């Protein structure tokens, strides 16, 4: 992902995640802080998906639409902040490809877990990709900043 891709990324975010709005500044900051964890998915030369990810603290996911300021010097997980695919990108094994890259990036950072907050009733999808629900590790209020069914999920890599 390049900074010039961010308007297209924001457009996808509003289409795929309308109930989870985040300001442009959040996307810009994630890209500025950790560009190697920001990727786009293209088909036929058009951006039709994206991923924002970065090292973070296990059991302390950021709230929705919050600025991080900085990344931790002693991260304990590789956090998948946001993934969104337009319908045209689905069915092409994009998630498998993206998860392989996430695992490789986490390993490069010497982190042995991936973590995320599942929204839009997507917990079963993430379970099929070896994530386990660990809501008991996160304050309920933090999860509810997303929605009432949000789940904190962790995948062990080692």
Automatic annotation (TrEMBL):
Task: Report a single Gene Ontology molecular function.
Answer: acyltransferase activity, transferring groups other than amino-acyl groups
- From which residue to which does any coiled coil extend? none
Q: Which domain of life is it from?
A: Bacteria
Q: Which UniProt keywords apply?
A: Transferase
**Spans through the membrane:** none
Keyword set includes Ion transport: no
List the PROSITE patterns hit by this protein, alphabetically: GNAT
Q: What is this protein called?
A: GCN5-related N-acetyltransferase
* Organism of provenance: Methylobacillus flagellatus (strain ATCC 51484 / DSM 6875 / VKM B-1610 / KT)
